[in-house]
TrEMBL record:
This is Sugar phosphate transporter domain-containing protein. Its main location: plastid. The keyword Transferase does not apply. Residues 27-313 form the Sugar phosphate transporter domain. GO terms for biological process: monocarboxylic acid transport. The chain crosses the membrane at residues 24-44, 56-76, 91-115, 127-154, 166-186, 198-218, 238-255, 276-292, 298-315.
């Protein structure tokens, strides 16, 4: 984002010193915060689903807290709200629609199966990216990239066959989220605007929130009113229930904000590697904290899949760098 990075540069210009000499410290801090917030989000999110299994409602809360955060940020002028018009809305709407669909289906998956397994399936996203690039955009994907995806597909298949928490609902929803996020990235390339990333994310969150509310009301509304909310309050009490929902929404928003800011600071290769490591952390921590039992085959499959994603990310980023270098 143009305006955004200028702002960061302006801040850095004012305070020469430690951060100026060692930009890696700042980048390292961004990565640490991104991982930390992401792990906390995933764990708190699953803890909520363990006593309140309503992923549509919780997804709406994630987006709602983010939108309130963005509106407050605009109100104090950090960042200044970028003007929006019909043309921009038309560009951002498909991105927000894919964001909403990807977010809700991810959450249905998190609620239904183990977090570690949901993230293993989500490691297939690059495969859908490659397929869409080749067959939707009609751009050739190099053979080396396709070959690097073979272990990913193999690993996820192995892990799925012996996953103890396996369910088709969880599996299919994670797959739909892969497809949604792939389309989201295609549409967001088309929607590249002069608007800074913070503003873009704010508008996307607002549209996605509006999109998510009707299905949540239709699909979960009746059960929530009859017994869902009362059950949760009976189990953990009103205060914990409300604060859990508020915090999970806050962590969701902050980790997305930090991920975006990290994206702007680093080369494609660094970011790709960062993304793979993030999954390793989330899968590892969730297995430890929830004491998930995993079979040896699922463990090996997950490792093969992650290794494949790492290889894929490396090759893809190398290709990006060559393009830039030209």
């Amino acid at each position: 984002g143009g305006a955004h990075s200028h702002k960061i540069r302006a801040l850095e210009a004012k305070s020469p010193g430690l951060l100026e000499k060692y930009p890696a410290i700042t980048t390292g801090f961004f990565f640490f915060m991104w991982y930390f917030l992401n792990v906390i989000f995933n764990i708190l999110n699953k803890k909520i689903y363990n006593y309140f299994p309503y992923p549509y409602f919780v997804s709406v809360i994630h987006l709602l807290v983010g939108v309130v955060y963005c509106l407050l940020s605009w109100a104090v002028g950090l960042p200044k709200r970028a003007p929006i018009n019909a043309t921009l809305l038309k560009l951002l709407f498909p991105v927000a629609l894919c964001h909403a669909l990807g977010h809700v289906t991810s959450n249905v998956s998190f609620a239904t199966v183990a977090v570690s397994f949901a993230h293993t399936i989500k490691a297939l996203e690059p495969f859908f990216n490659a397929a869409a690039t080749q067959f939707v955009l009609g751009q050739t994907v190099p053979l080396s990239l396709w070959l690097s995806l073979a272990p990913v597909v193999l690993g996820v298949s192995m892990a799925s066959l012996t996953e103890l928490s396996f369910s088709w609902k969880g599996f299919i929803n994670a797959m739909i989220s892969n497809i949604s996020f792939t389309y989201r990235s295609i549409y967001s390339k088309k929607a590249m605007t002069d608007m800074d990333s913070t503003n873009v994310y704010a508008y996307i969150s607002i549209i996605a929130l509006v999109v998510c509310i009707p299905p949540a009301l239709i699909i979960e509304g009746p059960q929530l009113m009859q017994y869902g909310l009362n059950d949760a309050i009976a189990k953990v009490g009103m205060t914990k229930f409300v604060s859990d929902l508020f915090l999970v929404g806050l962590f969701y928003h902050l980790y997305n904000q930090i991920a975006t800011n990290t994206l702007e600071r680093v080369a494609p290769l660094t970011h790709a590697v960062g993304n793979v490591l993030k999954r390793v952390f989330v899968i590892g921590f969730s297995i430890i904290i929830f004491g998930n039992k995993i079979t040896t085959q699922t463990g090996i499959g997950t490792c093969i899949a992650i290794a494949g994603v790492a290889l894929y990310s490396y090759i893809k980023a190398k290709i990006e760098e060559e393009k830039r270098g030209r």
